[in-house]
Each structure stands twice: as structure tokens, then as C-alpha cells.
Amino acid sequence: MKNSLKNKLKTQYEHRTETPSDDLWERIESQLQRSTEEETEIPVVKRFSRLPFWRVAAAVFIFVSVGYLITQVMQKPEKNEAVMAHQEKAANPESNFASAQKEALPKYAGETPEKGNQTEARAISVSEKEGNRIIMKSEPKNIEAAIAQNSKDETTTEIPFNAEKNYLKEPVTQKNEGAKNKVKYVTAQDLLFEREAGKSLREQENDTRKLGDVGLKIEKPKSVKILGVTVYSDEEP
Amino acid sequence: MQKDFRYIFINAQQHERLAQKTIYEMFSPRMLAVAKSYVGSTEDAEDVLMGAFCKAFTEIKSCRDENTFPFWLRKIVVNDAINFIRKNKNILYADAQDVELLGEDILDRAETDFPDFEIDAVLAQMPLGYKLVFNLYVLEDKKHQEIAEILNISEGTSKSQLNKAKKWLLEFFNQKENEKFIKK
Q1: pLDDT over 80 at A32, yes or no
Q2: Which of residues 60-99 of B touch A (CB under 8 A)?
């Protein structure tokens, strides 16, 4: 209905006005000024708030990398020592063999050393293998006394070799009769080592050069793998 | 005039202070009356108006064009006034009670039946709870569903509050008539 109370209410409502106070615009203006200043400040704060994250990440990265480098440096001397020791062993097989000889040879019986042959040390070598018996030929220099002692006691030059069990059984001698229970065995690894050492000694014998002039040309390996770590030689190819 | 307001509106969108002041001077009297119809006092209405204008000038770019600006600004003022009432004045709406209207709806009666009707007096004296629903339904043309969402009440409560407002209005007019009759 056009002339209803409702329409009258709405018409009067739409035409109502109130006069604001004089300072209302100044209050609005100051409020607007404050809000614009706050808007300009916020981006600066945001920038700074981003920095600490990157700083922390950079610091963590530096610490981790420094710690890794320190551990690498600590491990290097140990590796170098291992490599050096191995290289020394490879360079001087005679001394290695001689030291091994001292430990192993007195256990074995063999032929008596040739008289007069006292200049060079000769390795024990497995020269023949007849069936299950291995004839040992040994003329070691440093253990002449031990061999002489053994040769007095031994009755045979042949040492029975038990192929199944892969060891040499020391012959029963008068001296050994009392110690039957003590059996000294030779392992395959020792035999192989002795064979290789014997080869190098034979080469020395054939060498006509003078004492001191070994003339050995041991080719150092270009790379050695120790405990999974490959170490390359420093020598130029 | 319209071209002038369009020019002012574009400048206000660029946050030009002079354009903002011009818009304030154009709309502040009308908007202050709207705010006062909700909150009651002039001081509270000015607080509401200050917040509403700051919000409007800050977010003026979200307003489509100069033609919709007056309605857009009024919407902000009404919302801020209702929020002000929620924060500062505790209104507890009782459960919806069926209030039967006796006879014809007062709003549908002819205006000639109420010759000395003044809306200022009605809005100044009507209880706040009734007034919110009455203003939103009668003056802002909102539906009961919208009113329920705005005031966070049920639709039934909105209807019952409107009926109570109409009943109050009828009693108010009857009282006015009696006072006039007594004076005579």
C-alpha cells in the first residue's frame, strides 16, 4: 500500500540527517594518517623477519660443513699411515720374508745347509710334491743352528704332507718323542708366501750385480684398495 | 554533478585527502543519522561513523563505481553500528514466543491514521532489542533469514521480535493519542 505507515516510516528515515561535530573530520584524518604509516612500516618488519631464517640456515650449513672437513682431516693421517706401511712392505719383501722366516722356519725340518753358503739367505720353497709328500729344501742363513739341531734329530728328510688337512706334520724324532702331543702345522698361506719369496731369491742369485746393487725393480702398484678405500700411487706414470 | 562526483570518487580511490574530505561532507549527515537510529546516542554514532569512514576510504577500491558508493557506504555504517551494539550493549534475546497480532498489521494501516507520527521519537524510545530487528526489516528491507544471520539469532526469534516491535508501536501510538486527548 502506497500510503501505509510503512512507507511513511521509510520516507522519513531516508530524509533524516544529523549534523556531525566539527572535530569529527580531524579525528578521521588522523586515523587515516596512522593507518597509512602502519602500512609503510609493515614491509620493513617483514623483511627483517625473513632474515633470521636464512641466517640460521646459513649458520647450520657452515657448522655442518666445518665439522665434515674436520672429520676428513682427522681421518687422512690414519689413511696415510696405512698406505705408507703397505708400500714399505711391498718395497722390501726380503726383510718381510726374513722376519717371517725367523718365526716360521725353525719349525720345519729340511736338508742340512750347504757348507760355505753363508752369504745369502734362501727361502723355504716347496719344490716338489710327490703324492702326498712335499720335499722341503731349505738353506736359511739365520737359522743354521736351528736346522743343524733339527737335522741331528731327524731321521728322514721327507715330511709327510696331509693333503686333506693341508698341513705338514713334523716327523717324529727322538727329541720329539717326548713331545708327541705338540704338533706344529703349516698353513697354505705360509706355503704360498714362501713360494713367492723363493722366486725373488732365485732372481737375486742369477743377478750378477754386486752386493748392495739389488737391481730389483719392484713395480709399485698404481692403486691399492685397503678396507674398501682405494689409494692411488703418488708416482708419475 | 554526476561527472563531478565521478571525478571526486576516482581521486578518492587514489587516496587524495581533498577528495576524501569532499565525500565526507557529502555523506556524513545522512550516515550519522543512520548510525544514530541503531546506537541511540550522538557520541556513540560519531564513533561508529569515524570507524566506518576510515574503513570506506581504505577499501574504496573494492567499490565498483560511484553509483553504488552510497549504498556500499551505508552497508558499512549499519554493520559497524550492529558490531558496536554487540560489543558495548548486552542484548539477550529470549526464546521465540508466539506473539499474536491483534487485528490488522499496524504497518499496513494508512498513514493518515497517524498524522503526528515522528520517526525520531519512535526510534529514540523503542527498546534496543526490538529496534534492531525493526530497523533491519522495515527500514533496510532485510528478510528474517538475513536478520537471523546478522544478529546471530534464529529466524523464529527474528519474527517474534518484529511482532513485539509492532505491538509496542501500537501501544506507543495509543499512548500518544491518549495524551493528546487528555491535553485537550
Answers
A1: yes
A2: none
Place of cell 727361502: A123
Establish how many alpha carbons lie within 13 A of residue B106's alpha carbon, considering only the half-sphere containing its beta carbon: 21
Mutation target among B31, B46, B136 for the A interface, most CBs of A within 10 A: B46
CA separation for the pair A233, A230 (Å, rounded): 10
ipTM score for this prediction: 0.83
- Residue A69 to chain B, least CA–CA distance (Å): 56
Q: What is the DSSP string of A171-218?
A: PP-HHHHTTTT------HHHHHHHHHHHHHHHHHHH--SPTT-----P
Q: Which residue has the higher pLDDT, B98 or A195?
A: A195
**Average pLDDT value for chain B:** 85
Q: Of B28, B37, B111, which is closest to A20 when you measure between CB atoms? A: B28
pLDDT greater than 80 at residue A155:
no
- The pLDDT of residue A27 is 93
| CA–CA dist B96, A131 (Å, integer) | 118
Sheet holding A167-168, edge to edge: A125-130, A133-137, A158-162, A167-168
Contact B111 A21 (CB under 8 A): no
Of all residues in chain B, the one with the smallest CA distance to A11 is B139
Q: Which residue's C-alpha cell is 625473513? A: A50
